[in-house]
Structure formats: structure tokens, C-alpha cells
Amino acid sequence: MPDPFRSEKIANWVSDFCESAGAADLPASIAPLAQPVLEAFLSAACSRRDVGPDEIEQADVRHALLKGLARLNIPSDAKKRVPALVGDFLSALEGQGRLGGGRALGAHARALKTAHAESSREVTAPIRRNYSRLGPNDPCPCGSGRKYKKCCKRMGSR
């Protein structure tokens, strides 16, 4: 049964980490974003199977990193550091006795660095036409039998 106070537990765990000595070593690009990023991560990981934060597994970590955090609106230099931040957080949770297997989950999060970078890219696929471009000397598509430049292009109907 899921914990009814899950969001409070998540907020407490994240704030404990952000105020700890381990968070003091965070790079300047990710340090101010650590709390909201980690809360979003842990919420996404828990919501995948509707479990408490102390019951998350590798599949939950993967889902949260690749689906939950990939679309966060944060600077690109900070996005690159998210898997390492999550890995440090999960390892710290095991050190505090809050999450069994946290170091292994942290290593898994760090290993997803490339996949996270690919899923957070905002590049869209190029738009491709399925037909060739109509030239002025091609037959007119209206079916008149005349060249396009002498028919519909001149009339401006196409």
C-alpha cells in the first residue's frame, strides 16, 4: 500500500540531502536546481508503480530519468549533470539507511547519462516531402496537358 505522506517524505529526503555536506560539492550549474530536480525525480519514480520512495527499483529510476526529468525546462549545462546528481542522491539515501540498494540504483542512474541526454534533446526530425517539387516545365497537375508555367502558374490558382 502506498504511503499517504509520500510527498512530505520526498520533500524531507530531498531537503536533507540538499542541506548535507554531500550537496556542498555540487557544481554551480546544478546546485540551485538540485531541490526541484530531485523532488521531480523521486515523485516520477514513485508514481510509476505507486510506491513509496523507499521501494523504488531500477525500472523506476530509468522511467523517472528518461521520461520524468528529460523534459524539465533547465539550462543544458545543468541537464548534463542530472544523472550524476540523481546518482549521488540515491547513494546518500542508502548511506542514511533510507533506501536499500541506493548505491546500485545510483550507479544505474549514472549509467543512463547518454540515454538521458538523448531523451532530453529538443531537436525534431526534419520534415520530408513524399513528392517531388513541381517545376515550371512539368505537366500541369490540373490535367490540361500544358506546361505548368503556361497554365495554372500563370493564372495563380496553384
Question: Your description of this structure?
Answer:
The chain is an all-alpha fold. It has one domain. Helices cover 50% and strands 0% of the residues. The chain has helices at residues 6-18, 34-49, 58-68, 76-79, 82-95, 102-111, 113-119, 152-155. Helix 1 (6-18) packs antiparallel against helix 2, helix 2 (34-49) packs across helix 5 (82-95) and helix 5 runs antiparallel to helix 6. The chain is elongated and about 80 Å long. The N and C termini lie far apart (64 Å). The model has no long low-confidence stretch (mean pLDDT 87).
Elements, N to C (H/E): HHHHHHHH
- How much of the sequence lies in strands comes to under 5%
Question: How would the global form be characterised?
Answer: elongated
Counted beta strands: 0
- Span between N and C termini? 64 Å
Runs in which pLDDT lies below 50 for 5 or more consecutive residues are none
Let me know the largest β-sheet. Answer: none
Assembly classification? single chain
Q: What is the gyration radius calculated from CA atoms?
A: 26 Å
How many distinct helices?
A: 8
Q: How is the secondary structure organized here?
A:
Blueprint: H1 6-18, H2 34-49, H3 58-68, H4 76-79, H5 82-95, H6 102-111, H7 113-119, H8 152-155
Q: How do you describe this structure in short?
A:
It contains 8 helices and no strands. The chain is mostly helical.
Offer a few descriptive terms.
158 residues; mainly alpha; elongated
